[in-house]
Amino acid sequence: MQLKPLNTFTVTLMLFFTFLILFFSGFLEFPSVSSSIQQPFSTPPHTLSSKSRPFTDLLSAFRTWDSQMGCAGFKLKHQDLIRLLSNSSGSLQEAGGESSCHQLRMEHVSVLVKGWTWIPDNLDNLYSCRCGMSCLWTKSSVLADKPDALLFETTTPPFQRHSGDPLRVYMDLEAGRKRSGREDLFISYHAKDDVQSTYAGALFHNGRNYHVSSYKNNDTLVYWSSSRCLPQRNQLAKSLLKLLPHHSFGKCLNNVGGLDMALSFYPECANDASNPKWWDHLHCAMSHYKFVLAIENTVTESYVTEKLFYALDSGAVPIYFGAPNVLDFVPPHSIIDGTKFSTMEELASYVKALANDPVAYAEYHAWRRCGVLGNYAKARAASLDTLPCRLCEAVSTKGGRNARTE
């Protein structure tokens, strides 16, 4: 018997239901439209020497690197990259030179930080800034009884500013930064905003134990800690960590037996042995690993957070997934940008090879030993550490309380 041909509608319906079955079974997966981690990656693979020389002592790796390359060799090898990452970048604001002093309209500016805020208390100070200007930054309404500006971070500024009132400053350092619509000055992590505050400064990690170990674990290569288990970040971490020996200390993908295990592994990392806190370990514990996996909550331009800078400061090599312009914020040849590999397997192979090559590994630390900072110096100069003077300059330029209302 001859079969009747299927009409177009029937074929389309069959394909649609087949598609639904595959999608909901997890066989098919689509990338998110939001600014989350994107795969696959794009650029050609990195290559290292095939000679394996496992090491556990970072200082011995430095000595080997010194004898085989040294700072002069490093600067010559990476001269194009160093030049590229030392030029002016649209990702970072630069402090004005002495020629901009004429724009300042006030010799002294006081900023009153309003309400509860995470901004460190030790920022409170009287600062001596550029051009002979002084700046009082305080949370005390007694010390700043007639402030020139009010800084709001967790609450929005007043709806209106009347003539003679302090300028309203609003700060938002989160990935989806948004102006309140009520501010006279806006602070965020992006260079396009009125005042930029990067995460590169030291004030983002007060109260940590800064013991740095010269011992590098050669059996467990990667440190990972995250307690905000975002699905796409978890998926990305899992896809890499399953290929590499690692310790995961946070709530997400924990494989060490609990949240307080870092201090059990490394008791020297507790600031106060009688009252240990899990966050004491962040830098100290990281220093025992050759690599730290750093994945941003959200991928967006210039959103380079403390996750990356913690790893750099600990003496580990960051494996980074995040801002596409991350190289504008870090020293030349200091991080492994995970997005520069075509597959996770390729990235894992590179990490394993690097872990067994003391010269190549030490080269990722050359920037701090040779003083090759590139744009990292500018990222530090635009950080929270320097925010008081830079905000006071912006307030002075506007005239503080004498600024016109709009």
UniProtKB/TrEMBL annotation:
The keyword Transmembrane helix does not apply. It holds the Pfam family Glyco_transf_10. It is an enzyme of class 2 (transferase). It is found in: Golgi apparatus, Golgi stack membrane. This is Fucosyltransferase. Belongs to the glycosyltransferase 10 family. Residues 217-399 form the Fucosyltransferase C-terminal domain. Its EC number is 2.4.1.-. Coiled coil: none annotated. SUPFAM superfamilies: UDP-Glycosyltransferase/glycogen phosphorylase. It is a single-pass type II membrane protein. InterPro entries: Alpha-1_3/4-FUT_pln, Glyco_tran_10_C, Glyco_trans_10, GT10-like_C_sf. It comes from Hibiscus sabdariffa (roselle). Pathway: Protein modification; protein glycosylation. Gene3D superfamilies: Glycosyl transferase family 10, C-terminal domain (3.40.50.11660).
